[in-house]
Write a structure and sequence with these properties.
The complex is a heterodimer of chains A (524) and B (162). Helices cover 51% and strands 14% of the residues of chain A. By secondary structure, chain A is an alpha/beta fold. Chain A has three domains: 219 residues, Growth Hormone, Chain: A, CATH 1.20.1250; 36 residues, no CATH class; 248 residues, Rossmann fold, CATH 3.40.50.150. In chain A, helix 1 packs across helix 6. The longest helix of chain A is centred in the first third of the chain and has 31 residues. Chain A starts with a helix and ends in a 5-residue tail after the last helix. Chain B has 162 residues and is mostly helical. Chain B has one domain. Helix content of chain B is 71%, strand content 0%. The radius of gyration of chain B is 25 Å and the shape is elongated. Classes of the chains: A alpha/beta (524), B mainly alpha (162).
Chain lengths: 524, 162
């Protein structure tokens, strides 16, 4: 029984390290596909080597049970070290004054190094436990049965690691404390199995790890922007979240993962115009062609915001509707984002009255359930991070989105990328090629003032109004930069963008293209 | 001090303009000299907005000016100003500024000063970026070292028993 429990504990610990390791990296290096791929690759390599080494040791060892216990204890000690030492290492790996624009190389180097130095060693040792336990059990039951039972116990432990760590331990304890608790469990198991002096050492280490779990979280202030004060932090199954406030201006940012100078949502109190890309979403109702004056009560404008965050896109859009009633639905994948937004970045009551937020649902899945005939759709899941969700950039997605719009309805998508629209086979050209599947040639890119972002506007069945005509329709009181964003030099029409292959659900090079563009140095 | 106050006062004279896009209706006819306002007005605004730290408005003025004079020395001047706000244009903007200052010694002191100030900002940003890159490069050996260390340890662990 002890062998089965040990195998399950080792399996649990390996998966906990693999999954929570990424959460431990997130405040420093983000959770891009590159970070995940490196973590999974390193962990799998360590498991393969550990299994091989365990087999060798099983054959050589006079007491494989004792050796397995030693490995559990050593693995626990290394997990504990990883939880405690990763933060100072990450801080050392990241240059000061780093902006997100220049961070890609540091993130790749840092996350790979951290995975190799902090996560590979314990996984290597823990993966070597199973062959030793098989050796122990095989002496009484035969190799086949022993391998099957130990394998099953290890897999069951892994299963607990996957779900228990992400959905139970993480919300209750947090990343660091969960990893330290795992280390304590490994050390105590080793102490129980070893007995004697080695057991004492294991117990002492377990005690130290337990105490460390209650120390402050060094990642709380990771990559904090200058002049910002932390209002709240939260670990969700999707990401690490932080709300910061700038006392000098009163503005607040909701940041995710690596932070730096980027934010997921912006809040400026009663301020409608942030001067950020959200302002350009106000053009969506204008492109969609607001109905003219009518005698009866105006029909409410219906729109969805995919990737709602804390709702930063809503105030400028409501301003564009100029008092016209609306019915908005915001879709946010991470419920913790919606909760933090409601608490720290609250929208005015007048807007909330016309808004329904659906949190915990994927934008594309939920859009299928949306009513038809929407006036416009805002897509802001394209964060200014390293990635655009692949399934929200395919030809099939744009076909589905177009089908939910009324004729003349508009999709406005925020795209953060270093790619240029003139790059043949670049990300923007391929994104536009994908959008053509749903919207034909009724497409236009707007450069977001003072940023790398673009807003893609796509209109169902009807031609997009000339930017000059939109400029002429802009109401008084709107910011100048919105007018400037309509200048010919700031917009790119569909006809100016080279033909390219569309992204599809089946074949999608988006992540690769995005990684390549972020890793490239300026001018390449 | 008095200059700063004067600039702030000038900026405050346009409280409506500063946040009012109606002044931008001319952009739809940027190629229509009858409807377009004088570029001189926007040059003044660019200067004042920059001095007052009104970044968004200054960007808008520079974008408008670049549009108004796209292919001459003035256009290049505004392109330099615009590159300050576009990280992708910092390095080429700096080259353009150097080139412009070398080629246009005959320009007024105010114009040259405007480009020189934009150049100074670009120099700071490019140098900061290069410093970050240098620090990134200085850490580039770490993953390789970790890989070598891991390979060495794995080889040791997997060595054949004697």
């Amino acid at each position: 029984m002890a062998a089965l429990l040990s195998a399950a504990l080792a399996g649990f610990a390996v998966l906990t390290v693999e999954i929570l390791g990424v959460h431990l990296l997130a405040p420093w290096f983000g959770t891009s596909a590159l970070v995940w791929s490196q973590q999974i690759g390193v962990v799998l390599a360590a498991m393969a080597l550990g299994g091989w080494a365990g087999g060798r040791w099983a054959r050589r060892s006079a007491d494989p049970g004792r050796r397995a216990a030693c490995l559990l204890g050593a693995g626990g000690a290394l997990v504990s070290l990883a939880a405690l030492l990763l933060a100072p290492f990450a801080r050392w790996m990241l240059p000061e004054a780093l902006s997100l624009d220049d961070a890609a190389a540091s993130f790749v180097q840092g996350s790979l190094s951290a995975a190799l130095l902090f996560f590979a060693p314990p996984v290597f040792l823990l993966a070597a436990v199973s062959p030793l336990l098989v050796e122990v059990r095989a002496r009484a039951r035969g190799a086949g049965q022993a391998a099957g039972e130990i394998g099953a116990a290890g897999t069951f432990g892994s299963l607990l690691g996957v779900f228990g760590s992400a959905f139970v331990a993480l919300p209750l304890l947090g990343v660091r404390a969960t990893l330290l608790a795992t280390a304590v469990a490994l050390l105590l198991a080793a102490a129980l199995l070893l007995r004697g002096r080695a057991a004492g050492a294991g117990a002492v280490l377990a005690l130290i790890s337990s105490a460390a779990a209650f120390s402050g979280d060094p990642a709380r202030a990771a990559n904090l922007p200058p002049g910002a004060e932390i209002l709240a932090t939260q670990e969700s199954p999707y990401q690490r979240l932080r709300v910061v406030e700038f006392p000098a201006t009163g503005e607040r940012w909701l940041q995710m993962n690596e932070g730096l100078d980027s934010f997921q949502s912006w809040w400026g109190g009663e301020t409608v115009w942030s001067g950020l890309y959200y302002d350009l979403f106000a053009l969506a109702p204008l492109y969609a062609g607001l109905p003219g004056p009518q005698s009866g009560p105006p029909r409410p404008q219906r729109f969805w915001v995919l990737g709602f965050g804390a709702g930063s896109a809503l105030p400028p859009v409501a301003e564009a509707l100029r008092g016209r009633p609306f019915e908005a639905v915001g879709v946010e994948l991470d419920p913790a984002v919606a909760a933090l937004g409601e608490r720290w970045l609250p929208l005015p009551a007048s807007l909330r009255a016309s808004l329904r937020v659906i949190a915990g649902a994927d934008a594309r899945s939920l859009l299928r359930a949306a009513p038809e005939g929407l006036d416009f759709i805002l897509l802001d899941a394209y964060a200014r991070q390293f990635e655009i969700p692949q399934h929200l950039a395919t030809a099939e997605f744009f076909v589905e989105a177009a089908a939910k719009l009324r004729p003349g309805g508009v999709l406005a998508a925020n795209v953060g990328t270093r790619a240029r629209p003139e790059d043949a086979d670049g990300l923007l050209a391929r994104l536009v090629a994908s959008a053509r599947a749903g919207f034909g040639d009724h497409l236009r890119l707007h450069r977001v003032p003072r940023s790398r972002n673009w807003i893609l506007f796509a209109r169902r069945d009807e031609v997009l109004a000339d930017p000059a005509a939109v400029a002429a329709a802009l109401p008084a009181g709107w910011p100048q930069e919105l007018g400037a964003a309509l200048l010919p030099g700031q917009t790119v029409n569909e006809s100016e963008i080279p033909s390219a292959r569309a992204f599809t659900d089946d074949r999608n090079a988006l992540t690769l293209l995005q990684a390549r563009s972020w890793m490239a140095k300026e001018g390449e | 001090m008095s200059l700063a106050l004067a600039l702030m006062a000038m900026a405050s004279q346009w409280p409506q303009d500063a946040r009012d896009v109606s002044a931008w209706h001319w952009t739809r006819v940027a190629d229509d000299p009858v409807s377009a306002p004088r570029a001189e007005e926007w040059r003044e605004r660019l200067f004042v907005y920059q001095a007052a730290g009104a970044e968004a408005e200054a960007w808008a003025a520079a974008a408008a000016l670049e549009r108004l004079a796209p292919a001459d020395a003035d256009g290049e001047r505004y392109a330099v100003q615009l590159s300050v706000w576009d990280p992708a244009r910092w390095e080429p903007g700096l080259d353009l500024a150097d080139d412009w200052l070398a080629r246009h010694a005959e320009r007024s002191e105010a114009e040259r000063d405007g480009v020189a100030r934009a150049r100074a900002v670009l120099v700071n940003r490019v140098e900061a970026r290069r410093a970050v890159r240098a620090r990134q490069s200085a850490r580039a050996w770490v993953p390789y070292a970790a890989l070598v260390l891991g390979a060495a340890l794995a080889t040791f662990a997997l060595r054949r028993p004697r």
